[in-house]
Specification:
The complex is a heterodimer of chains A (about 575) and B (about 260). Chain A has 23 helices and no strands. In chain A, α1 runs antiparallel to α14, α6 packs across α9 and α21 packs parallel to α22. Chain B has one domain: Rossmann fold, CATH 3.40.50.300. Chain B is built from 9 helices and 10 strands. Chain B has a 6-stranded mixed beta sheet with strand order 6-7-8-3-9-10, with helices on both faces. In chain B, strands 2-1-4-5 form a 4-stranded antiparallel beta sheet, covered by helices on one side. In chain B, α3 packs parallel to α5, α5 runs parallel beside α6 and α6 runs parallel beside α7. Chains A and B meet through α14, α20 and α21 of A and α2 and α3 of B. Chain B: Belongs to the ABC transporter superfamily. Chain B: One of its GO terms (molecular function) is ATP binding.
């Protein structure tokens, strides 16, 4: 008995959200709370004295407006004409920096898409084949492929990129590791970016295929003696159709989510450009990059929805086909994640008992020994100790951030249709690192910026999950009965919505902690999270990569930790996120 | 005395666009429907799928507003409003849900379910006693009060839905296809119970069904809807014996019967 959301309303809300985001981007230089001209001088001159004459000169040189409204309006008008202003640091037009970077990013994204599709097909095909069979329970092979898919999807880009860099690039010297001078330079970044995306793509399609295989037409086709290949193709086609909007967003993420990979392999793309600009507080460049990536993401998302409508027709697209939230993931043996958690916990506990700050320059970069089981870092600090303390910092911060996200998620998610579209959906589609970059550009790099951006991002899936659970309650017969029994909004919230939502959302939030920790580590790696002296996994990894040639084992601890954490994040929903059957 | 009236109610919904940029066509679901429910009366509303039964029900329950015409209860105009402003109406008109398997929160006990309208509608009086009374009225053992609805059978759940509706002692009970999710023997029992309970409590009954036989078993008067219009109305036996509209004849023919000559 609830009204259907009006389509114009949806499009309007989305347009409003994109518009609002654009205005925020346009106002970035003023959001920092001090005079942009002063920021420019600081960016250019570092620590030198700033005198009023220099400020006035900068203002007239860059045409900086006196107040934020005027400034934002000026920037938007210029941006609409394709003029993104002048870089505060390099002094050249931002457009001249953006175009080549966008080219590099686009070709990297294209190569990564190819990798993702190959990985995705390899993972989906055996599962779909098993689903088209007569047997109710899938065979061991299909099960193995499912687990492999979950693991691949859970690989963090930071960890995978570092592992590829260490093994393929440095150890075996098969392909060049840094730069952008030809197709061979593209291989490692494309793999690092494409493989996890392929895993996620496969996961979305497999979830859709599971639902599809239960549909009545599959039985009908089987009953009329349809060949197994035809049936497999039918299931895959329908599953892909259903998953298309999410897949489109995934591929948009290849463009914007590439910051880590571009930084690690020194690819001169949009991500690296925006990172360097954010670190140098060169806001016009950040503005240009963010706007480009937001527009590309929106275009990809919109084309996904259009593609689905075209593939399904109006009637099919109107029906809700598959839950958008990760409703079902595979259920491995209960032992596997527990074993992995134990493997992860043991060295963390061991490290916590040791001193992470003691500098012993005479012992720098030593190989693993009894005294230092994981060796020492470039200033002779105990790597095992830093691993343990870093875990507490990274995972503890992630837990705190997730708790904040849980509160926000419940408040926003339980509100009615107003929260249905808009900021949340935009945040959902934006690559995480991009949000971190923007916030670091405004607030300056540091653990606080990282925590704020992680909180912003962590609450999004919780909002989405809460929202879909609440929508389920609102569509239920007992909600309708309560309304007709005269229940007010407060009663329904207390007696029906909260009891139905709180348990599953809490469990879901717990499963999000590892991925939030990965995100915080990624920011730390990029230098916009924890400082380099803080024992934090991402920051540690970033230091370790500088010493790859001399001490390859240095990177092993954070890389393995991040991989384990990622795989745990991939398994966790199966263990905890399942809603108890009503 | 007339309690619930609908006068010339019309409801239109936007239909699906033919192509993405086209104008949204409008579908008239109810077309100038008149209806009156008197105290103690048992009225059946029948019609095939898409006849507008459920929409009419939503208008009668003040969940939606008609595009034209008006719905009144005891002479007062009804419009959808905040729960507090409709409390007077909800105390007098209660709803029996369609699907007894979905009608109860999986987290609320039988007692919570029956007490929900009493508490939400701020019904004065001794609630525990009323809950007991309501459960007894539908032949449910009050000892079940601490159980979860999921442990009850389909027929017991439908009784529970009825007990919940009876708890505030309404003047009108509105039931939307209350038997469509039940087995045949349970259906008859629920229909008989609906009839007996309304006779015993003196409340009126509005029973919506696509099955004329169900209405015949429980009601005295029937309104036949077809494509949003009232095509026939009158005493249920008269409509059953001498249907004047094609829609009513179709509904009667749709009632399954054993072929003559078949013996059990």
């Amino acid at each position: 008995m609830t009204g259907r959301p009006h389509r114009l309303g949806r499009v309007g809300a989305l347009a409003c959200a994109v518009g609002a985001l654009t205005v925020v981007v346009a106002a970035l230089p003023w959001l920092r709370g001090d005079d942009p001209a002063r920021s420019v001088l600081r960016a250019r001159l570092e620590d030198r004295e700033i005198d009023p004459a220099a400020l006035a000169a900068v203002r007239s040189e860059l045409h900086l407006a006196g107040n934020p409204l005027q400034g934002a309006a000026d920037w938007l008008i210029a941006a609409a004409r394709g003029d993104f202003g002048t870089s505060w640091v390099a002094g050249v037009p931002v457009r001249d920096l953006l175009l080549p970077a966008a080219g590099a990013s686009a070709s990297l994204a294209a190569a990564a898409s190819v990798v993702a599709v190959v990985v995705g097909v390899a993972l989906v095909a055996p599962v779909a084949w098993a689903l088209s069979g007569e047997r109710r329970s899938p065979g061991r092979c299909a099960r193995g492929v499912r687990v492999a898919g979950a693991v691949v999807a859970a690989l963090s880009e930071v960890a995978l990129a570092a592992a590829l860099l260490i093994l393929v690039g440095v150890r075996w010297r098969l392909v060049p590791v840094a730069g952008w001078f030809g197709p061979s330079y593209m291989l490692l970044p494309a793999l690092a970016l494409g493989v996890p995306t392929g895993g996620l793509f496969a996961r979305l399609v497999v979830i859709a295929a599971d639902v599809t295989a239960e549909e009545p037409w599959v039985r009908t086709w089987r009953a009329v003696g349809c060949g197994r290949i035809t049936l497999t193709a039918g299931i895959v086609r329908r599953a892909v159709t259903v998953a298309v909007p999410q897949v489109a967003v995934l591929f948009a993420g290849l463009l914007g989510g590439a910051v880590v990979v571009e930084q690690m392999f020194a690819v001169p793309g949009l991500g690296r450009l925006s990172l360097q600009a954010a670190l140098a507080q060169d806001l016009p460049v950040v503005q240009g990059c963010v706007l480009t990536l937001v527009l590309a993401g929106t275009a990809a998302g919109a084309s996904g929805i259009v593609a689905q409508r075209v593939m399904l027709g109006a009637a099919g697209a109107a029906a809700t086909l598959v839950p958008a939230a990760p409703a079902r993931s595979l259920r491995p043996r209960r032992r596997t994640p527990l074993v992995m958690a134990a493997v992860l916990t043991a060295p963390i506990l061991a490290g916590l008992l040791r001193d992470p700050h003691g500098v012993r320059l005479e012992q720098r970069l030593s190989v693993p020994s009894w005294a230092y089981p994981l060796g020492t870092d470039p200033v002779g600090r105990d790597v095992l100790a830093r691993f343990g303390h870093g875990a507490v910092l990274t995972i503890g911060l992630a837990a705190a951030v997730t708790a904040a996200g849980l509160l926000v998620g419940l408040v926003v998610g339980l509100r009615g249709s107003a929260a249905r579209v808009g900021v949340v959906d935009i945040l959902n589609a934006l690559p995480f690192v991009l949000i971190g970059l923007t916030i670091a550009a405004v607030l300056g790099p540091g653990l606080v910026s990282a925590a704020i951006s992680a909180a912003l991002v962590a609450c999004v899936p919780i909002v989405v999950h809460t929202r879909s659970l609440a929508a389920e309650v609102r569509a239920s017969g007992y909600h309708q009965a309560a309304v007709l029994a005269g229940a007010g909004a407060g009663w329904i919230l207390r007696r029906h919505l909260l009891p139905a939502v709180i348990g599953p959302v809490l469990a879901y939030a717990v499963t999000r902690v590892p991925s939030t920790a990965l995100a915080i580590a990624a920011l730390g790696f990029l230098g916009i999270g924890a400082g380099h002296d803080t024992p934090e996994w991402g920051a540690e990894l970033s230091v370790a990569l500088d010493y790859l040639e001399r001490a390859p084992t240095l990177a092993a601890a954070p890389v393995l930790g991040l991989i384990l954490l990622g795989v745990l994040a991939g398994f966790a929903p199966a263990e905890l996120g399942q809603r108890p059957a009503d | 005395m007339t309690l619930l009236t609908a006068a010339g109610v019309t409801k239109r919904y936007p239909a699906a666009r033919r192509h993405p940029l086209g104008r949204r066509p409008v579908r008239t679901v109810l077309d100038a429907v008149d209806l009156a429910v008197s105290a103690g009366e048992r009225l059946g509303i029948v019609g095939g799928s898409g006849a507008g039964k459920s929409t009419l029900l939503r208008l009668l329950l003040a969940v939606e507003a008609p595009d034209a015409g008006e719905v009144r209860f005891r002479g007062r105009l009804l419009r959808p409003a905040a729960p507090g402003r409709l409390r007077w109406f909800r105390r007098e008109v209660q709803f029996v849900a369609q699907d007894p398997y979905a009608a109860f929160s999986p987290r609320m006990t039988v007692r919570d379910v029956v007490s929900e309208p009493l508490r939400c509608l701020r019904v004065p009086g001794d609630h525990p006693r009323r809950i007991d009374e309501s459960l007894r009225a539908v032949q449910l053992d009050p000892a079940l009060a601490s159980r979860l609805p999921s442990t009850l059978s389909g027929g017991q759940r439908q009784r529970l839905a009825l007990a919940r509706a009876l708890a505030p002692r309404p003047a009108v009970l509105v039931a939307d296809e209350p038997i469509s999710a039940l087995d045949a023997p349970v259906r008859v029992a629920v229909l008989d119970l609906l009839r007996e309970v309304t006779v015993a409590t003196g409340s009126a009954l509005v029973l919506v069904a696509h099955d004329l036989a169900a209405v015949r078993r429980a009601c005295t008067r029937v309104v036949v809807l077809d494509q949003g219009r009232v095509v026939e109305s009158g005493p249920v036996d008269q409509v059953f014996r001498t249907p004047r509209s094609a829609a009513a004849r179709n509904l009667i023919e749709a009632i399954p019967r054993l072929p003559s000559g078949v013996t059990r």
